[in-house]
Amino acid sequence: MLLLILGFIVGGFVIIMGGGGAALYLGILTLVAHVSPSTATATSLYASIPSLIIGAYSHYRTGNMKFNYGNKMLITAVPFTIIGTILSHYISSKIYSWLIFLVFFCLGLQIIYQSFGKKKASKKMNPNHSYLFGVLSGLMVGIAGMSGGGPVVAGLLLMGLTMPQAAASSSYVLIVTSIVGLFMHATTGHIAWGAGSLLLFGAIIGAAIMPRVLARFDQRKVTKILRPTIGIIMLIMAFTSIF
Q1: What is the pLDDT of residue 243?
Q2: Which pTM value belongs to this model?
Q3: What is the pLDDT of the chain when averaged over all its residues?
Q4: 103: which residues sit within 8 A by CB, 6+ positions away?
Q5: What is residue 16's DSSP assignment?
Q6: What is the pLDDT of residues 93-125, one digit of tens each?
Q7: CA distances from 184 to 85, 120, 128, 131, 177 (A)
Q8: Within the chain, where are the H helices?
Q9: C-alpha angle with apex 40: 34 to 42, nearest 5 degrees?
């Protein structure tokens, strides 16, 4: 029951925020289900994919999906997911933790500044920066089994998309990268089918409900609240990655 409830909470929350939740599932599997790190890596991706698909479909029906941005990210995200999986055998966890800290810290600060800074300073990034954020996302999926939603959502927000549009487009990108990451990680680690399935079922329910709830509110107000929230979450994730 605890895994089902946690799956529901994570599935609903991360779909609103535009992530896949694999990093959160990773923590739940290791701390609650006491799964080994290698097994948790593959299982976290397995648990996140179905809820991502359902959430992406719900987002698509709201009309917020921006495929042009997502496709640009996928061009670099997919190959770097494969590269990241190969590199994961050679990069120490300490070095990876500091790399994640730098990425999340810089993106978090920039999003918060964009949210509260002066209007003239809130300049949108070039859409071609999508390729760079695709690289960061792919490496996160490949190296650590995370869904890579952080840099994807951050990049989309910095390029001027509203929060609902960023969440919708991110879920589309993460479906592909998570499937590639699951296939790559499953070859080196086992999947905890029981614990993973409990998280999966809870997440499916949460992911199906939350996008419809989000669509009922004004996008500008949602973005005004969730944009700085994303920035704060990224700063928290930055510091938790090194402590």
Answers
A1: 67
A2: 0.70
A3: 78
A4: 136, 150, 151, 238
A5: H
A6: 677 667 767 766 876 787 787 677 654 444 566
A7: 7, 44, 28, 22, 11
A8: 2-17, 22-31, 37-62, 67-87, 93-116, 130-144, 149-158, 163-186, 193-214, 219-240
A9: 160
